[in-house]
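User: Could you check the structure of this?
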Amino acid sequence: MLAIERKNIILSRLSAQGKIIVSDLSKEFGVSEETIRRDIEKLAREGLATKTYGGAVSNVSPSTDLPYNIRKKTNVEQKEFIAECVAEMIHDGDRIMLDASSTAIYVTRKIKDKRNITVITNSVEILLELADKTGWTILSTGGTLKEGGLSMVGASAEKMIRDHHVDFAICSAKGIDFGMGITDSNEKDAEMKQAIFAAADKRVLAIDNSKFDKISFIKVCDIGDVDIVVTNKMPDEVWQNKLADKGVTLVCDKTNELHLF
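Assistant: Sure, the predicted structure tokens are below.
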């Protein structure tokens, strides 16, 4: 394994778990503890981690916009579960919009058995994932390639979104909070999500349970502006009641999505 690959995995672990242990990673990767300490030192210099006795803790906040290749490897099990739940909502012939989140690529993979789907997305990776798919209509938003990410953003991308209407819009976010609503880490991504949600009959927010009670940098929309929240674990009763009061359907069970409509 290359050093950069190991470093990215360590950063992914920090983001998902909040801390790492040097001895555990040394055994896992088959390298010396000193090698792991050097990896941690690099992350510390970049402001992404703080060294502790025997390991490190994360400096990554909900406002941090991690590189896409790292986000894609974070919370994989949760994203797989969420994607399976979302896939149960999509039927043959549906028209959907997907944002450029790492969760959306998992959703894409779970719906590839559907027929006659129309997909509109600003995600370069989703376009590549569907490049060999036949019988579907696949539309790219165009726009400006976002630095450090495989997504298209900007005014022309937003215009393309506004010119279309779909059955489902599926987006992720960095946080959901009673006061601030749904938030993300940067303005360009937030603007794309706003446009995508506005273009759909059903607006689906796909987020793992770690995003609840988190606030990121910029507001995407209010909680009541989405129709469905799909997550991997049932939030507490306060959240359940809050979502119900806002008329938002909560889904965290792959067996009950068909009762939504």
